[in-house]
Design brief:
seven-stranded mixed sheet, eight-stranded mixed sheet, alpha+beta, about 50% helix, globular, about 675 residues, 20 helices
Length: about 675
């Protein structure tokens, strides 16, 4: 395999680089669009009329980089003048409900804003809104509703090693949230007829499986595996899947679409004409994707399968990898921010990993026995998927399911059986006796499956938590794996170069491990209503706060530390840390103060001062080297504090603007 066999990959890489650059630079809409459009036109002209092959190739690559930048800018909704947040009118919002999910305290509705109703006038607008409400009894997906014109910006809490939910929403072009009561939501209009039929079909299937399977956890597993209805699972069942490294099964992905492809191909085998059979397969796949809510991994898989089938129909020798790269390029051009979404990264990495490694791993061993061969196929498939999936999972979730290979090997046949019987049972809806037999069989399979999940969940060290994969480690590891593959399996195989590809990762791992082993740092976390400070010495962490911490606080900071409330006068167990309530000293060279309700001691110099519950007299802050302003202060208080600190020329750090404050020292 050579790089030249995949020309689309070159352009895909340039588009991705363009999107990343545009997101990082935060370019303005109008000026950037005009500039880059002009640049693209100029580069295309150079590419067509320049005689130098090198200059022509360079111009085309740069043009695709600019296409990536221009695509991102044109799809960045918050900068569009028609975004609902940029229109200054009063009234109500007309929204189209796209998704409904249960949360711990109510329901979450993802909606598209269509219009603003102002004095009986419809003002056209655009944008997405995340709505939180207490009930969704009378709300249906794809229908239109009016809600109060009340929203606030998505809060993005930036803390090291913690999932940034605000950034996650922003990557889906959701920049605002609305908190309203269900009685404030009024029906406006029905869904388009086709979408209404698809929604009703999905509800029919959900109710059918709930009726046929009495045990709630079992019907929840079917609806999650087949239809992507994760909200129907109880917390205990969700934890079982997560702890066993099987959470990806609960989201409709390429694997699910692949199983549906096999089912459709089996049922349509007797259709006489290839054109009709392939067309019905494509229609069936996209109908399934629509029913399951147009999940991005499913769309990618459906698009790739469609490209592959159409290529076969017209007699083209299509390569699966080219289909994957083409599907990714189209999806990025339609929704540029998709590259920052975890679901896309995991889905793309899984398919790429299978295409690159499965065949090579499978041919390591050859079995004459059909049974052993099938078992080895499943094992080789699971190993190949995890090669690129595991680094991404560890980077985002900081955990490693120890028995993932064993779990996947056993689970995959269960998933296939559950989906096959569920689909077949739905197709035999009118044959009640045969239907009852099928669902009794399915109930037994689900019982065995649940027993297996409970057994593996209780095994020692089933889940290793707290694994930190630095950003540079992650980048070098991914490039090392891909580089190793390229040089090792190239037609001119070079084992030395293949091993060299892993050296940057090993060096980075060693250097960062050495640096972290003697690391001393202070972290003041970005938290919406509390102050939390970590004093870290190597692997030991000492935490203090101005309010009592609970489990909900682990959303903003790592749970791995000993916690101390500032009201307690306590000598830290960690060497070189002293704490007597609000004042603490971290190593003899650094004196710090955690300010609660008191002022600073005038005869002590402090390296760091964190403002607390009450604002101190500013004159007493003059012996502080750095003032930290927490996130939970009101905008008025922050403005007042910044003005006063600027007047007395004291440096300050606003956590709400810049993320968690981190001070590292030797």
């Amino acid at each position: 395999m050579t790089f030249n066999q995949f020309p689309i990959l070159k352009f895909l890489i340039m588009i991705i680089i363009g999107v990343v650059i545009s997101d990082y630079l935060n370019l303005s809409f109008t000026i950037s669009a005009l500039s880059f459009f002009s640049g693209i036109c100029l580069l295309i002209v150079i590419g067509f009329f320049c005689k130098s092959n090198m200059l022509r190739s360079t111009s085309f690559f740069v043009s695709f980089l600019m296409i990536g930048i221009l695509t991102f800018i044109s799809h960045h909704q918050i900068k569009n003048e028609k975004h609902f947040s940029r229109i200054s009118v009063t009234g109500k919002l007309i929204v189209k409900v796209m998704d409904l999910r249960a949360t711990a305290n109510g329901y979450r509705i993802q909606a598209e804003v269509i219009n603003i109703v102002s004095s009986d006038t419809l003002v056209a607008c655009m944008g997405k809104l995340m709505i939180y409400t207490d009930d969704t009894t009378n709300i249906n997906v794809y229908d239109f509703y009016t809600i109060p014109l009340s929203y606030k910006k998505v809060e993005s809490f930036q803390n090291p090693g913690i999932f940034n939910y605000g950034k996650y929403l922003q990557n889906q072009n959701i920049f605002h949230t609305s908190f309203i009561k269900s009685n404030q939501i009024s029906f406006y209009n029905s869904a388009p007829q086709l979408l209404g039929y698809i929604r009703d079909l999905k509800l029919l299937l959900v109710n059918f499986y709930n009726e046929k399977i009495e045990k709630k956890s079992h019907s929840g597993i079917i609806n999650a595996l087949l239809l992507g209805q994760k909200q129907m699972l109880d917390m205990e069942t969700k934890s079982l899947f997560t702890n066993n490294g099987l959470a990806h099964l609960l989201a409709v992905s390429g694997m699910h679409v692949g199983i549906i492809l096999v089912i459709l191909s089996t049922f349509l085998t007797k259709v006489p004409f290839h054109l009709i059979r392939n067309t019905l397969i494509i229609i069936g796949i996209w109908l399934y994707i629509l029913i399951t809510g147009m999940q991005l991994p499913a769309i990618r898989a459906g698009f790739m399968i469609s490209v592959y089938i159409i290529g076969k129909m017209i007699g083209r020798n299509t390569k699966p990898l080219n289909s994957l790269f083409f599907a990714a390029m189209v999806l990025i051009c339609i929704t540029p921010k998709i590259i920052f979404q975890l679901s896309f990264q995991l889905s793309f990495a899984a398919m790429l990993s299978i295409f690159l490694f499965y065949d090579k791993i499978y041919h390591i061993f050859i079995f004459d026995s059909i049974i052993f061969d099938k078992i080895w196929q499943l094992l080789a498939l699971n190993v190949s998927v995890q090669i690129l999936i595991l680094p991404i999972s560890i980077y985002y979730f900081h955990q490693f399911p120890t028995y993932f290979l064993f779990n996947s090997l056993i689970t995959f046949p269960f998933v296939i059986l559950i989906m096959w019987i569920s689909v077949f049972g739905a197709m035999l809806f009118w044959f009640s006796e045969l239907n009852d037999i099928l669902f009794k069989m399915l109930d037994f399979i689900l019982n065995v499956f649940e027993l297996f999940l409970n057994f593996t969940d209780k095994l020692p060290l089933a889940l290793v938590n707290g694994i930190q994969l630095n950003g540079w480690k992650f980048v070098f590891l991914i490039f090392g794996i891909l580089g190793f593959y390229f040089f090792y399996y190239h037609k001119k195989r070079n084992k030395i170069k293949a091993l060299y590809c892993l050296i940057p990762f090993l060096i980075t791992e060693s250097v960062l491990t050495i640096m972290d082993s003697g690391q001393k740092q202070i972290i003041v976390y970005d938290h919406p209503n509390k102050i939390a400070i970590d004093l870290i010495s190597s692997l030991d962490t000492f935490r203090i706060s101005n309010k009592e911490l609970n489990k909900s606080d682990w959303f903003y900071m790592p749970a791995k530390s000993t916690d101390y409330n500032n009201e307690k006068n306590i000598q830290a167990a960690i060497e070189n840390i002293e704490c007597n309530g609000t004042e603490f000293k971290y190593f003899s060279k650094t004196g710090l103060l955690f300010i609660g309700d008191q002022d600073l001691e005038p005869d002590i110099d402090y390296n760091l001062c964190v403002l607390g519950n009450n604002l101190p007299a500013y004159s007493t802050l003059k012996n502080c080297q750095k003032i930290i302003i927490p996130s939970y202060f009101s905008e008025e208080n922050k403005k007042e504090i910044k003005t006063c600190l600027s007047e007395i020329r004291l440096p300050f750090y606003d956590i709400s603007k810049r993320g968690a404050f981190i001070l590292k020292f030797k």
